[in-house]
Design brief:
The protein has helices spanning 8-15, 19-29, 46-60, 65-79, 82-96, 100-113, 116-136, 142-159, 183-194, 208-218, 237-246, 258-263, 273-283, and strands at 35-36, 42-43, 170-175, 198-203, 222-226, 249-252, 267-269. It is of the alpha/beta class. The protein folds into three domains: 8-79, Multidrug-efflux Transporter Regulator, Chain: A, Domain 2 (Orthogonal Bundle), CATH 1.10.1660.10; 82-159, Methyltransferase, Methionine Synthase (B12-binding Domains), Chain A, domain 1, CATH 1.10.1240.10; 170-283, Cobalamin-binding domain (Rossmann fold), CATH 3.40.50.280. The longest helix is centred in the middle third of the chain and has 21 residues, at 116-136. The chain is globular, with a radius of gyration of 21 Å.
Length: 284
Amino acid sequence: MSPELVRIGELSRRTGVSPELLRAWELRYGLLEPSRTVGRFRLYSEADIALVHRMRANLDAGLSASEAARVALADRSQVDSPGLREAADDLARSLESYDDVGAQAALDMLLAGFSLDAVVREVLVPYLHAVGERWQRGELSVGQEHFISNLIRGRLLALSRGWDRGVGPRAVLASAEGDQHDLPVLLFGVLLRTHGWRITFLGANTPVASLTETVRAVSPDVVVITGTVQGVFDPLVEQLREVAREAPLYLAGPAADEDLARQADAMHLDRDLVEATSSVSRAA
């Protein structure tokens, strides 16, 4: 058997979905199209494993099984599309050459041709992660990093108009007091909105006192605070406990860990943005 292919029992082990349910998803919704051995055993690829994980995330977000499968298959089609990769490459080239017009045009193409969820998950999150690593290695200048972050941040803020519409659960999102970086929590808000949430976005460097006041005013279902600077949460633990008394509190980002969250009576989001949205949606 090819090392890239697994039998249904291993697929079940890796995804936490029973073989019976995997077969049902395959037959009812066409979720999986396995190859077969000579003996007619099903063989599944890494792409199939990723597809099952998407299906589970969609179910956790409250979609029906048929809708969860439809969205998962649509996401796969978009991610595999050459047009997505081509537009993503155009975006990167424009951003890194300070080409505002070209970058906006590339974003227009991405947002017109693909779902917002796919653009954030498959283009913006991995690209911004790579930008941070390249900046640390000296491959991108400070000017390039600032230009890239500010242009994407501006576009995401434009997309945030109307975040309060609907009847879904509400999340209050902010960067920690003393932290000027709000792009991670802004991306998180965009993804959470695709799950039907209403968003109250407070942005960077939000004083805990102001956060508490907002939480009392809007009575959210969850509060998520990100910290990108090590130690930024440490002097805020007592105040964060007050926030946690008002609503379920999540701490995320490099500055957060399990011990700190426990001290603040909060929960720690230690997963990436995509998985974190599913975790928050499931717990609310």
